[in-house]
Design goal:
alpha/beta; 8 strands
Length: about 375
């Protein structure tokens, strides 16, 4: 009633005005919250992108991506935060706009701005005294994200980045920087180990030793390990004989030497070397050697029987996986034949010949 008295309006006019106010109020009232942010102009995005590119070219490695997360240096963080300051390329951009321009996640930028990095001066990058210091820094930065061997890394550094550093220099550099640790080097070879064997002629010295070989039966799900005893002539590097047993004992040594090696050569050698196992120096073995001198290899020195150890190593490298498969006897026999012929072919073909330039593929490598 007071409103009617002050305005001089009648009740009918008041009711009409209320209806008009209701219709108008629906258009005046907006949704709660902040208005949607406007997309930053394209020229601002381009300026920010150029500024970041120039920074990364001046300071390589200040931002790098790993399979786990992206890592940024403190100087790079302060540089990004300062891009929206007055007079900077990103002036007037919001944090969301800055995230779009830099491709840095918005959550990460909010954390940086929450730490008030804007008020912190950007740390000065360490000054490099010379071009070599810059190249060394580049090598360290490259290796931090490297996933591969040291040889491949050194090749990449020389060929792709044209840094003329040798493998030894790079290895020492990475070791000092704590990025790669070298295995402790073995003590230098004793002087007397050089030229352990004075090769005279075939039949002057034989070597005897054993190694373990496993055969697996797929249908049984079992693996059986045997001892392979072999006799090698040092001068000719020829295998004179061998024997297979469950264990390395006196019996298999005698079988490999007396029943296989001596008949193959047609005569006994002047000397026969065996390691210091008790079963290798029994009275029965000494008696079987007769006039042949039985020599003990040096305890704890694999060099004293290196020719035979190397033979075993090459044998196991060329030997296919001894896995016999098949459900029927015929299938099992076929599997055995394949293994036998593969082993024979690899032994027959040997290594690529020097006269062919060592670039001819070994036929047995595909077997």
């Amino acid at each position: 009633m007071q409103a009617f008295a002050l305005t001089g309006a009648s009740s009918s006019q008041a009711y009409q005005m209320v209806e008009r106010l209701r219709r108008t109020a629906s258009t005046l009232m907006g949704k709660p919250g902040r208005p949607p942010s406007q997309r930053p102009p394209d020229d601002s995005l381009l300026k920010v992108s150029k500024a970041i590119q120039q920074y990364l070219m001046r300071f390589p490695g200040s931002a790098r991506e790993t399979p786990v997360r992206t890592q940024y240096s403190d100087g790079f963080r302060c540089f990004i935060v300062g891009l929206i300051e007055s007079g900077q390329p990103g002036e007037g951009l919001s944090i969301a706009g800055l995230a779009e321009a830099t491709t840095i996640p918005l959550v990460t930028l909010n954390e940086w701005f929450g730490r008030k990095l804007r008020s912190q001066p950007a740390p000065e990058e360490p000054a490099l005294d010379s071009l070599e210091d810059l190249q060394v820094s580049q090598v360290l930065t490259l290796y931090e994200s490297w996933k591969g061997s040291l040889v491949a890394f050194c090749q990449m550094v020389r060929e792709q980045h044209h840094l003329k550093f040798g493998m030894t220099f790079i290895g020492n550099l990475l070791h000092k920087a704590g990025l790669r640790y070298r295995k402790p080097q073995k003590p230098k070879q004793a002087p007397w180990t050089h030229g352990t064997y004075r090769v005279l002629y075939p039949g002057a010295q034989w070597l005897g030793d054993g190694t373990s070989v496993a055969i697996e039966f797929a249908w049984y799900g079992e693996k059986f390990v045997f001892n392979l005893e072999a006799v090698l002539d040092v001068a000719s590097n020829a295998l004179m004989g061998f024997a297979v047993s469950d264990f390395e004992d006196e019996e298999v040594v005698l079988r490999a030497y007396k029943e296989d090696a001596v008949p193959t050569a047609g005569a006994a050698p002047l000397s026969h070397s065996l390691d210091n196992r008790y079963s290798n120096h029994t009275e029965a073995i000494v008696e079987a050697l007769g006039t042949t001198t039985l020599l003990r290899t040096t305890l704890g020195r694999g060099e004293s029987k290196a020719p035979l150890e190397g033979t075993f190593g090459l044998f196991k490298q060329a030997l296919p996986a001894l896995l016999i498969t098949g459900q029927t006897r015929r299938e099992q026999a076929r599997s055995i034949l394949e293994l036998v012929f593969t082993a024979w072919a690899r032994g027959r073909n040997g290594r690529p010949r020097k006269k062919l330039g060592n670039n001819v593929l070994n036929v047995a490598s595909a077997l």
